[in-house]
Amino acid sequence: MSASHPVMMLEDRRSALAAARTVSLFADRLEVADKGALARRIDLSAVTEVRLTVEPAPGAGGGALVVCRVRAGAREIAFGSRRLKPGGGWSDEGYAFRKAITALHAALRPRAGEIAFREGPSFRTRLILCAAGLAMAVAAITFAGYMLLERQAGLLAVMGAPFAVIGGAIAWMYRPRPDQAYDPDALIQRFSG
To answer: Tens of pLDDT along 3-47?
Structure first.
């Protein structure tokens, strides 16, 4: 395996505002190229965290995508299991994504004890989403209380109930809790077949 030839390459575009980028894994580094020019590089010897998350794919009919985020200090390279097409809609890149994360985890295997392999949203993201859910629930309950007690408008008060339930559900789903680790060897075995 040569350091100058990529082990794997994957096209990534998860935002309508961003151009497609090429993520390449080499024997010693991970790179992102934007229109052929190097945009970001992370040496595999500097990787401190690999996080797998499930995120919504707007316009995919309720579908989601898996995003792999590789960090080395403040630098991050992320790529997903779906790619946004230029004209709209999502292209399923599941097969290429599976090969990419398998190759990445295999390349990081010698340093597995030094790297945090985590799944799910980060603590910071959970805190933000939990706070947003709580704010939504409190605003809905305040609205319902105001309509019921001050305006004597029971029907309008009931309209706040769904928003209170949704806000409460978001707050509960994203309540702050410790990161969940995963075994990189188990991931390699599961996706190698």
So the answer is: 578 999 999 988 878 888 999 999 999 999 998 899 999 999 999
Q: How far apart are CA 121 and CA 132, in angstroms?
A: 15
Tell whether pTM > 0.70. Answer: yes
Asked if residues 20 and 36 have their Cβ atoms less than 8 Å apart, the reply is no
Compute the distance between CA of residue 57 and CA of residue 32 in angstroms, rounded to an integer.
21
Beta strands 49-56 and 116-119: pairing type? parallel
Strand order in the sheet with 116-119: 75-80, 64-72, 49-56, 116-119, 180-181
* Other beta carbons less than 10 A from residue 39's beta carbon: 12
**CA 67/CA 24 separation, integer angstroms:** 15
Q: Half-sphere exposure of 64 toward its Cβ, with a 13 Å CA cutoff? A: 7
